[in-house]
Amino acid sequence: MSRLLRRLFVMLIAYPVALLWLGMLVRHRERLPLKGPAIIAANHNSHLDILALYSLFPLYLIPKVRPAAAADYFLKNRWLAWFSENVVGIVPVIRSRQGRKDPLDGCYAALERGEILIIFPEGTRGEPEIMADLKSGIWHLVKRFPEVQVTPVFMSGLGRSMPKGELFPLPLFVDVFVGKPLAFQESKHEFMQQLSAQLRHLRSKLVRRDASPATKQVDAPSS
């Protein structure tokens, strides 16, 4: 039942909002993983981020795509918890360690099931269109699963379309850049530096694109 609800959510909400309402443009969609286990590491500015990232994948793959999200926000009441887990399909992350329970247990389990895990290394939505410092939780994930592909994704425009506190998105253009997969590094500092550099590199493409009249191309998800 949950798999059907999630497909309906993406088909009726995520695809129309991201592709039609926002006119989302995607660069290098072919770099996205089409099977798990895999990790998508994306910047985070808006609740629309999850819709935009879901819209990158074909419908048949949606049950395998799982966004990690803060348990203290998405599970704060019974109805929101049911919607978040069964319709959106989040993997709850407890942002504070409780006893011996590892906050990333749900993420470990998702990767063990061969799922494609969406991670927001900034940890929370920040100021619109400003990338905050990255947190190292993703390194702990990759350390346990060093063979897992980590694909950086930079999104622009979603923070302006629906910033924190707003309920309805403005129809502004959104750009998505998919980077090359990253290799695991034993050094946490070097891995985080590599991820941060990749996201900044993808963001720089947006700056260069805005500075020149390049032709836009839309990559649509395959069915």
From TrEMBL:
SUPFAM superfamilies: Glycerol-3-phosphate (1)-acyltransferase (SSF69593). The chain crosses the membrane at residues 6-26. It comes from the Bacteria. The keyword Kinase does not apply. GO terms for molecular function: 1-acylglycerol-3-phosphate O-acyltransferase activity. GO terms for biological process: phosphatidic acid biosynthetic process. Pathway: Lipid metabolism. Keywords: Acyltransferase, Membrane, Transferase, Transmembrane, Transmembrane helix. Residues 38-158 form the Phospholipid/glycerol acyltransferase domain. SMART domains: PlsC (SM00563). This is Glycerol acyltransferase. It comes from Methylocaldum marinum. The lineage of its organism: Bacteria, Pseudomonadati, Pseudomonadota, Gammaproteobacteria, Methylococcales.
